[in-house]
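Holo model, (2R)-2,3-dihydroxypropanoic acid. Inputs:
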Amino acid sequence: MVNKLRVLATRALPAAVTDRLTQDYEAHLNPDDRLMSAQEIVSAAEGCFAIICTGSDRFDAALIERLPASVKLVATFSVGYEHIDVAAARSRAIQVSNTPDVLTDATAEIALLCLLGAARRAWEAQTLLREDRWVGWTTTQLCGTQVSGKRLGILGMGRIGRAVAARARGFGMTIHYANRRRLAQDQEQGAVYHAQPEDMLPHCDFLSLNAPSTPETHHFLNAERIALLPKGAIVVNTARGSLVDDAALIEALTSGKVAAAGLDVFEGEPKIDARYRTLPNTFLLPHVGSATVETRNAMGFACLNNLDAVAAGRSGPSILTA
Ligand code: DGY
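Output:
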């Protein structure tokens, strides 16, 4: 019998992914889905050739330094990889992979849910019904902001930004975007390019954040940039909480400068700024952008495809190279 390679999964995985993992590898699983400490990860990784982790695990240089020499791959169950010090991994000849592409549609769908939920006051409407306070239809009740005919500015026109644009066009929105580079015409599809995000902001009836978390995007949406938005703009964030200066956005939501916000991600999540909960003009979701059965399975299989390739001495389909 051939010995199976050993793999650590730091968090519980979808059933279909666990089945394939345990069929092909000797898996150290975490069925209770408890967040493991750095020490627990280091100990559990002993003898493992790969670790499947998630965005909740912090693979900083200190942890990577302590990983057993057997570890050749850290496969994150996420497209974002700001929780992994890729340079530190590389210096130990540990490869890092992520899960691009497969969560584009699911995340774009949630961006549209946040956009519509914020614009049409979905939380207030739901609450009215659930608290049994609805006394019937009136001409002025819960009037929100119409989406069709409005301008949507997208920060970050990668795969997810473009998928958001495609869906927003279906709602009759005009697209503006700010991106490090201008897209080719067939990808741009008539969207208006702004080389500087600051030039785009005055055109944003709606602003959708779709850029990765980097030192450059940290607190992108701060008081100065909010001031550039039209009064009553609506903000959507399905990228990373770190892109938003919470104090500035909460101030703008309170003053009415920003009419509403649809947020799926938060700085310091799951401990979100408590003031978001008390604002009536927020539509809040607990980081569920990729949370469909289809997408979570595909993310898990993407991790396993990378494991299989590295185990066979090949480069995986989504090994990070830069
Ligand atoms: C990712 O993959 O980076 C997402 O945030 C998880 O949904």
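The two ends are 38 Å apart (CA to CA). The CA atoms of residues 212 and 318 lie 17 Å apart.
Archived with the compound record.
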